[in-house]
Design brief:
The structure is a single chain. The chain has 425 residues and is an alpha/beta fold. The protein has 15 helices and 14 strands. It folds into 2 domains: 173 residues, ATPase, nucleotide binding domain (Nucleotidyltransferase, domain 5), CATH 3.30.420.40; 186 residues, Nucleotidyltransferase, domain 5. Helix 1 packs across helix 3.
Length: 425
Amino acid sequence: MNILTLNCWSNSIKYHLFSWGGRTLLAAGLVKRIGLGGASISLKVPGRKLETQHMAFVDHQGAVQLILEALAAPRNGVSDEAKLISAVGHRVAHGGESFHHSMVIDDQVLDTIRDLKQLAPLHNAANIAGIEAALELLPGIPQVAIFDTTFHVTMPDYAYIYPLPYEWYSKHGIRRYGFHGPSHLYLSRRAASLLGKPADSCNLITIHIDKGVSLCAIKGGISIDTSMGLTPLEGAVMETRCGDIDAGILPLMMQQLNLSAQEMEHILNQKCGIVGISGRNTDRRHILEAAVENNAKCRLAMEIEAHRLKKYIGAYSAVAGPLDAVVFTAGVGELEWFARELVLEGLECFGILPDSERNHAIRGEWEETLITRDASPVKVFVIPTNEELVFAEDVASLLSGDYNDHRNYEYSFASPDFVPQQPAE
């Protein structure tokens, strides 16, 4: 069985092609600048150089067509057998309360995903566009939706209900849902394996730090709280999102600056966070370099980010503890020793004893690394996440009839014998 996974964003699509019989990654790539002009598609096949093609303009339908054409082109080195796609797995950001596990997509499932678009308009709209394109271009091929939110369906009501009029929840679905579920799922199983314990015996804090940031409190192997809420705007400081703020700021500044609700939403999502504090709308690496060189605003941005993450670790230690481990992942979590160092500094009171040499030694290789001292009561790991593997495994197990939900399924990557593989792209 060859499984294509699609992770569709507003202006990009990340794709992977797996041969599931051998758990092998056959190809992977990225379509950039969808709907913006100056688009491109990259394709990496293991053992071959990266191939890139540029075009003037492409929409989501055209982007999926480009992916299928790239995988089929003889020049790219994908074998004839690999070109036969058996199923497609789609990342869907928001499943609301309608979905508690991954689902085979039919008309009813797709209609429900469309109805949920208002809860994550920046994400679900792109997910829907990718699904619709794949359904048209690959008719008759099973397609599966893997939801960001379903890992968090185990949260108790006192963790997901906001202190707002209860009717807002009962009539309008206003509650905490959480995101990055496949990433937190993967990290929870890999951390349990590294600890040599069953997942249902592990208490963890997993921290996904990229452009979006979310933390998850995991007790007994399941999510009991998470930092993102109704939308991906809540929680930690992010690259362009504010995270947690005093709600009273919003009406005050809307009045002061004569802003509409749409304008304020744009500011909160696109002009806040690290970019808003530093004043630099640039690659994060440049902000990090400036912070290390003691640029005042860049340093402040990093310190605010670390302070907020530190507070979340303290809070989640209280609800998920006694902790076995804390896990960092994703672009920032895996690659930035300085960001991790700022977060872990002063957490000895929680049984976290960082090892500076181990933390500095990580250079972005695809490896799972302990960055605390051997004597640390609470371990801290850096574990590269693999959401695409979760997508593919949910597709394969759902179609084979082996899958119920993530709580009752033994994932291949939970095995002590599992060897993480470096992505092709």
